[in-house]
Amino acid sequence: MNGPLTITAPVNFAREAKGRRRLDAGPPKMPACAPGRVPRIARLMALALRYEEQVRTGVLPSYTALAELGHVTRARVSQIMALVNLAPDVQEALLYLPRTEQGRDPIHLAMLQPIAAAIEWKKQRRMWSELRKRVYGN
Questions:
Q1: pTM check: above 0.90
Q2: SS3 105
Q3: Contact status, residue 90 vs residue 99, Cβ threshold 8 Å
């Protein structure tokens, strides 16, 4: 270094009970995050896309290796990886589902399996629309 480094910051000393001092720099400034949690199906969709990319580029040799790494069955990996067969706009809708503020997630993987099994994207979009109306009412 070229010279001494000086750092200045405001510090407040306040007395606690029984005459003890404490350093009070105030609460840390944390960015406010949206309430609730990201739905599990949105996280599974993101994982499916990431794992599909890793298998395609050769980072992972196969879905079997993925199952072994994740300590899950090959059947479970197949269920999750079926999400990549969804139409791109349905995948995007899953990734941006509204946060779950309380209780269980309204949409789960079993509800999407018949949609992912449909080959035509047009039919998938229709099935997704019906599911969304049934669950969210819009």
A1: no
A2: coil
A3: no
| Joined tokens for residue 130 | 């019906």
Cβ-based neighbour number of residue 21 at 10 Å: 9
Per the CB < 8 A criterion, the answer to whether 84 and 52 are in contact is yes
pLDDT tens, 1-33? 577 878 888 877 666 666 665 555 566 666 777
Structurally, how many domains does the chain consist of? 1
Contacts of 52 (CB under 8 A, 6+ apart): 81, 84
Residues 76/79/84/86 CA torsion (nearest 10 deg)? -160
Q: What residue numbers bound the domain in which 55 lies?
A: 40-98+105-136
